[in-house]
UniProtKB/TrEMBL annotation:
Name recorded for this polypeptide: NAD(P)H-dependent oxidoreductase subunit E
Binding-site positions, [2Fe-2S] cluster: 82, 87, 123, 127
Family: Belongs to the complex I 24 kDa subunit family.
Keywords, alphabetical: 2Fe-2S, Iron, Iron-sulfur, Metal-binding
Obligatory cofactor(s): [2Fe-2S] cluster
GO MF term set: 2 iron, 2 sulfur cluster binding; metal ion binding; oxidoreductase activity
A Pfam family assignment: 2Fe-2S_thioredx
Presence of keyword Iron-sulfur: yes
């Protein structure tokens, strides 16, 4: 990422009258969205620290605390599977097993083609329509293995959901 682009993003955030600590989180979201691989490279984390005049350790602390951020490249589609009890009981376990087998990856891994990253998450707040997954910013509920298979095949075919 070019430093000028980073400064422009920071400037936009500062006009929103955010607190310094809030700017960091918003900035990390925007920077991560800038990269097709949905991550923040270490050198960009260093640039962020310099531009915000905060220690690099503070940037790294936030990057590693929140699960929505990543310091390593991820797939085009990030599949977050709710593994809390309300999703686990009505078929969530079967969905997890299916996804791991279908994609050939475990939680925290990315498919060889770079298309999918599988992540485990806690409650997504949609217990009434469990089991639930989130792919990038889209939620899917009332899932079965068959419905998940349709979603995955659709994404593989280029039909973004």
């Amino acid at each position: 990422m070019d430093r000028a682009i980073l400064r422009n993003i920071i400037s936009e955030l500062k006009t929103e009258q955010l607190e310094q600590q809030d700017i960091l989180i918003y900035l990390l979201h925007k920077v991560q969205d800038y990269y097709e691989s949905h991550y923040i490279p270490p050198e960009v984390g260093e640039m962020i620290a310099e531009e915000l005049n905060i220690p690099p350790s503070k940037v790294y602390e936030v990057l590693t605390f929140y699960t929505m951020f990543s310091t390593k490249p991820r797939g085009k589609y990030i599949i977050r599977v709710c593994t809390s009890l309300p999703c686990h009981v009505p078929g969530g376990r079967e969905i997890v097993e299916y996804l791991k087998k279908k994609l050939g990856v475990d939680f925290g891994e990315t498919t060889k083609d770079g298309l999918f990253t599988l992540e485990e998450t806690g409650c997504l707040g949609l217990c009434g329509v469990s089991p639930v997954i989130m792919i990038n910013d889209q939620y899917y509920g009332d899932l079965t293995v068959e419905k998940v298979e349709e979603i995955i095949e659709s994404l593989k075919g280029g039909d973004a959901q």
